[in-house]
Amino acid sequence: MHRQVLLTLLDRYEPWDLNEARMYLATKEFVRAQPRCFERSLAEGHVTGSAWIVSPDRTQVLLMHHRKLDRWFQPGGHCDGDSDVRRVALKEAEEETGVQNPRVVGDGIFDVDVHLIPANAKEAAHYHYDIRFLLEVDPKVPVVQNPEAKEVRWVPLAEVARYNDSESILRMARKLHPTA
């Protein structure tokens, strides 16, 4: 596993606020300490890649209603051994929304989040060290419904809190529009 690429991306990143800074430091520590950090089989947790997909004018975000968790989230998923977290985020965005060739905005990380995934019938509770990238897509491009989602929908940025009011989601919205 090549952790150095992710560690370099993290070194170039500046957290948005104190809450994100705490998760950022925890992520750096986790990646440094765990050679298998990209493996889903690492029981305590693993690195995941996500995409915050926005319209070119930054007034809309593409969210999916996650079937298992029954909540609205940005597309994303497990690295499954792939240390190129940006590639993982792009792959997940395409698979979960059907958008093709989204434009990566900037050359670095957009957001860092650590969240606990509750235990289920297949796995014990564990942490996702989620590395998020900002992608841009024209909202006129058709989206595709997929088996992991109940629905995929463009949501006005000003209405994101109606879909998911978690600090994790609201922080990404505020990064685009501080009053969101």
Automatic annotation (TrEMBL):
Among Gene3D superfamilies, the record links this protein to: Nucleoside Triphosphate Pyrophosphohydrolase
Residue span(s) of domain Nudix hydrolase: 44-178
Q: Which InterPro entries match?
A: NUDIX_hydrolase-like_dom_sf, NUDIX_hydrolase_dom
Pfam families for the chain: NUDIX (PF00293)
| Superkingdom of origin | Bacteria
The name of this protein is 8-oxo-dGTP pyrophosphatase MutT (NUDIX family)
Per the UniProt record, the source organism is: Rhabdobacter roseus
